[in-house]
Amino acid sequence: MHSLPRFSRLPLLNLRKPIASHHIKQIHAKLIITALKEPSYFAKLIENYCFSPSSLNTQYAHLIFKHFETQSLFLFNTLLRCSKPKDSIHTFSNWVSKGHLVFDDFTFIFVLGACARSLSLSTLWFGRQIHVKALKLGVVSNLLVKTTLIHFYANNKNIFSARKVFDEMTERSSVTWNAMIKGYCSQRGRAKECCREALMLFRDMLNDVSGVNPNDSTMVCVLSACSQLGELYGGACVHGFIEKSIFGPEHDVFIGTGLVDMYAKCGNIDSALCIFKLMSFKNVLTWTAMGTGLAIHGRGKEALELLDAMEDYDIKPNPVTFTSLFSACCHAGLVEEGLHLFHNMRSRFGLKPQIQHYGCIVDLLGKAGHLNEAYDVIIEMPMKPDAILWRSLLSACNVHGDVAMAERVGNILFRLEPPKSSAHMPLTSEDYVALSNIYASAGRWQQVEMVRKKMKLKRVENKPGRSFIRNINNHLDGL
Questions:
Q1: H helices then E strands: how many in the chain?
Q2: Residue 138, by phi and psi: left (phi above 0), alpha (psi -120 to 50) or beta?
Q3: Cα separation of 394 and 324, whole Å?
């Protein structure tokens, strides 16, 4: 191991890039030998230890704080900021019970930020306790603490608590508005309703008397809401606002990508292509959004041509890019092209196919009527197939009237255990109904009755269908 010259060690702490593990230890030893007690040096040490991949170095970071001459809140906050989310939560939990430290605004910002990045019911419960603690200490009045609270609640799918914190704020920055709008856009349950709330909140932001202006992050979130709602008119209005108030979208890769995604998903693929061609810089997300748009519109060959163009621009496709391209092949019925691309994923692009890619291939083969080949793909895949894969094949059996294969797949689906996280939920009816419909199409009414009796015996709920129509006031109504 090469040692560093005596006086060249400490300046390394100010480097932005990570320091080698043995150099960190040399610096640590130097601080001990020279009896330097400057907290800023030890804070840098903690930061470098935490960013090291070694779990042993993480323990060193904790020991630095624990054995420092005096219990320093600055070092404690640094430890919370730099540790992994679960470690930060555990550290705060240990020290809050001791009562030796008086926490400040930064303490709560860092620990709530950790809770926002560690999503679980237990984290939500713990974050609520931190919220109460912050109220007792009177630090919730801090703008950044409240904004982080909104981010925490929204990330943990408690959008109602996030909105309550937002509504109680007397002062809001653009970051606060963005946190709330992004929170609405990120909700998967009640997605349509939440996206409408996001657009209404954006309107309130424009009319707010405090004069906070939307920025590029705001516009990306708003475009995402329009995309999820299929609001072409609203998305076009947002596009006009961006052109007039901020800058041309072709100069910002994130806004440009958002516009490509919005126009493609709202049915205007030509506008999406126009924005895509005007953009001066495109990243892998831009190419993927364009590929997804072409896939949705059944323009499979154009989507595949994007892959060659990406290589010309030295942009490496990611797993989501391939999902989009496989989807394009499915929509356009390009079986050979899709299989060729699948086999080239690893050899040409160095990407290992994931379960969603196998799902696309099963869908591709199933729609083309190659049911036995699709079944073989599921059986031979290196990971355990999930219910979604089998349902895709069952749907293909329904389309092509293959009762024998449908029976085999249906029985596999019935044997699959539901995930532990949803064990308390009622069993879904879609597998039973799909198999029942296949039997009915083949005129096998005895088997139809058998499936229906099994549904009653297991108390499987048959959910009614629901559709949306746009009324004269340009609102979506559910039926």
A1: 25, 2
A2: left
A3: 22
Dist. CA 316–CA 310, nearest whole Å: 7
Cβ–Cβ under 8 Å, residues 381 and 354: no
Neighbours of 408 (CB within 10 A): 15
Contact 97, 72 (CB under 8 A): no
Assigned token pair, 89: 């939560």
Mean pLDDT by 10 residues, the chain (479 residues): 46 55 63 66 77 71 74 86 89 82 90 91 91 89 93 94 94 94 90 92 90 90 94 93 81 92 94 93 93 90 90 90 91 91 89 93 92 92 88 86 82 66 50 72 72 67 63 59
Encoding tokens for residue 71?
């219990």
d(CA 144, CA 149): 8
Is 40 in contact with 63 (CB distance < 8 Å)? Answer: no
Please tell me the predicted confidence (pLDDT) of residue 39: 72
pLDDT of residue 102: 85
CB 394 within 8 A of CB 385: no
Please give the radius of gyration of the chain, using alpha carbons only, rounded to the nearest integer.
28
pLDDT reported for residue 446: 72
Angle 55-66/73-82 helices, nearest 10 degrees? Answer: 160
Angle at 143 between CA 142 and CA 148, to 5 degrees: 100
CA pair distance 238, 229, nearest whole angstrom:
14
Question: Global pTM?
Answer: 0.78
pLDDT at 17: 54
pLDDT of residue 380: 92
Q: Are 51 and 82 in contact (CB under 8 A)?
A: yes
Write the CB contacts of 466 (distance below 8 Å, at least 6 apart in sequence).
478, 479
Residue 474 Cα distances to 231, 388, 435, 466, 477, angstroms: 10, 34, 38, 19, 10
Structure tokens at 43: 């804070």
The DSSP secondary structure of 370-387, one letter per residue, reads -HHHHHHHHHHSSS---H
Contact 465, 430 (CB under 8 A): no
Task: Check: CB of residue 137 under 8 Å from CB of residue 103.
Answer: yes
Residue 227, both tokens: 């995309």
How far apart are alpha carbons 335 and 341 in whole angstroms? Answer: 10
Closest C-alpha to 57, from 84, 17, 32, 37: 84
Cβ(173)–Cβ(143) under 8 Å? yes
